[in-house]
Amino acid sequence: MEVYTDSLAKPIHTYRPYWAKRFGTAPVLPMTRAEMDALGWDSCDIILVSGDAYVDHPSFGIALIGRLLEAQGFRVGIIAQPDWQNASAFKTLGKPNLYFGITAGNMDSMVNRYTADRKIRSDDAYTPDAAPNKRPDRAVLVYSQRCREAYSDVPLVIGSIEASLRRIAHYDYWSDKVRRSILVDSKADILVYGNAERAIIDISHRIAKGEKISEMQDIRGTAFLRKQIPSGWSEIESTKLDRPGKVEEHVDPYEMKMGKADASCATEESANKPALPAGTSTIAIVRKPKADRSTQVVRLPSYEEVSKNPVMYAHASRVLHLEANPGNARALVQRHGDREVWLNPPPIPLTTKEMDYVYDLPYARKPHPIYKEAKIPAWEMIRFSVNIMRGCFGGCTFCSITEHEGRIIQSRSEESILKEIEEIRDKVDGFTGIISDLGGPTANMYRIACKSETIEKNCRKLSCVYPGVCENLNTDHSALIQLYRKARAIKGVKKILIGSGLRYDLAVKSPEYVKELVQHHVGGYLKIAPEHSEENVLSKMMKPGMGAYDEFKAMFEKFSAEAGKKQYLIPYFIASHPGTTDEDMLNLALWLKKYEFRLDQVQNFTPTPMAMATAMYHSGKNPLRKVTEDSEDVPVAKAGSVRKLHKAFIRYHDPANWPMLREALKRMGREDLIGAGKKQLVPAFQPAVLGTIRQSDGTTFKPKKVLPKAFNDMKNAARPHQGHAKKPYPAGAKHTAQASAQGRPPKKPR
């Protein structure tokens, strides 16, 4: 089944190649003039600028777009991680004939450079040897400015996830304010959002034919500036739009068709109604024909309005997400001062044939030779993995995948995927027979789509699996099961692991898939993401309740036992998500302790641009429902102390967090959870010196922080021990870290 078709979308592999196709395929796209000379180029047609190191692999956006444009016949050069202090680095390859393509890289530069606590990161996974500070804050803005300084008359096309998620006025967590569309601040000519292949190919060929970029206003998946709404368009205020999903139609008072009951009522009524006077004329009422959505534009509240009014910001976020289905989305417009930021509808998803075309291009599948022996962590992570699909219909409010890649799954063919596995086996250095992942944004959405293309094109739901799996969603995992079996049968392949996150509420719809996964593709541990245990928080995330987790866990353990394997689920949770209270985090901590989870990695919620959870964070309102001044208030953890506490609850087992947790439990009236009992959360005492601690399961760990504490501070402390009465510690008692962790009393002094 083809995932999506549209007669208006020209197949990306059917364009007539640009004349420079005669130069052939480059071993890697050039980063220096010497490489251009070796290829026989006197200039580049297109120069791509990226905040990432250049790795010629389809998992890196700069390589994918570069190779795609090369296949269209263009000479493409790469400027990767340039020195942004002046324009000289942006002149390295000379002046491009067509345009500069500017990206921040695979990540938003602010997410890449800062932690959830707004602290600068000490490393960068997309940089050789993980060196920090190789890209600027707000990289797209800085690179755009430098390109303008280098060659002021060259068009600027901006893209990547940074530009995509900042295409309208957006809340910026790092400056704690609503910023203008990145299109306005970058002074770019056009912005490409979402999956960029269709738009970037069309833009490139049209510029090559001499068309001005300012005249390209009909390309889906693009945003640009204009002075006013053009003639022929009807404008709709966003405040007049209703909630998503089918709305029951009101009775049409002018409709002449009647049901039986209505007809009998009308007959009875007319029988009692006096006849019209002779000579009375009637007026025919003609209904306005249904409006053409292709010429409708939805007006969002202006930048000035959303920057001052958080409620209007939440409303704008809600409307943008409702207008995200390529099958029915309308154009959007948002005023910024005296200019209009115009967003064309999202791009038509790629077909399977087009996906194969993109991923079958001649990638070198390694970093550019300029980096020599340097290690690029992001490359090391994915060098033996294969991307089998794009998109996610989960709609998690904290995630940017849906906003960027869309809800419609775009899958590669089985043949293309198996061919790539063979290429990894034959071409990638260091291959040991283990494929680290067959996945994508989600491990198990391959070839899953709506049962009806008509329903899919008209749907306005934010998620296909929340609050439950949609009855119109085909949850058949058979294509993925078959792919797994064929992949692990390839000669030279010893093991196929699945490293992408699993949508377990979808997986349980196919027990056969869970069995296949658990018995053949789990390397001892499987990552899944319940994200939280409490329903009121999960509802703000649009995540399933813990019942789905329990169902999957039972299947996982059953099939592991049948295979004679000891395997473990590794759950991931988010602290401080909008909607979370201290009580919610306490309940999650108790859930973790009940099931003996001691998590080292904890994710604190980071408000990323355009995510619905970010709108909740900024406004304190819930955009999953109609937003008004008096609509539902959402509790938000913004203070640093509260965010630290929420994170500490998840790491309740770390002695460094015990003082904070004890204080919080007392404040919450839950002193009953302080002590050494099995149902209590933290001990009443603090280790004198925190060293290596042995846990109840026999494993050891060393807390990141060492907190020396004089024993005199706790010599009078008391704690329950094995159900006995509280006893004070004897003066001078020795208190070891191991005793602290195991809940044993201190040793008596000799």
Please provide a brief summary of the model:
This protein is of the alpha/beta class. The chain is 30% helix and 13% strand. The chain has 25 helices and 27 strands.
Please explain how this structure is put together:
Helix 10 (310-322) packs antiparallel against helix 22 (612-619), helix 16 (478-488) packs parallel to helix 18 (511-520) and helix 18 crosses helix 20 (546-562). The N and C termini lie far apart (78 Å). With 750 residues, the protein is α/β, with parallel strands linked by helices. Helices cover 30% and strands 13% of the residues. 44% of the residues are buried. The strands form nine sheets. It has a ten-stranded mixed sheet with strand order 3-1-4-5-8-9-13-12-11-10, with helices on both faces. The chain has a three-stranded parallel sheet with strand order 21-22-23. A two-stranded antiparallel ribbon has the order 2-14. Among the domains are: 19-217, Rossmann fold, CATH 3.40.50.280; 384-652, tm_1862 like domain (pyruvate-formate lyase- activating enzyme, Alpha-Beta Horseshoe). It contains 25 helices and 27 strands. Residues 1-5, 242-274 and 704-750 have low confidence and may be disordered.
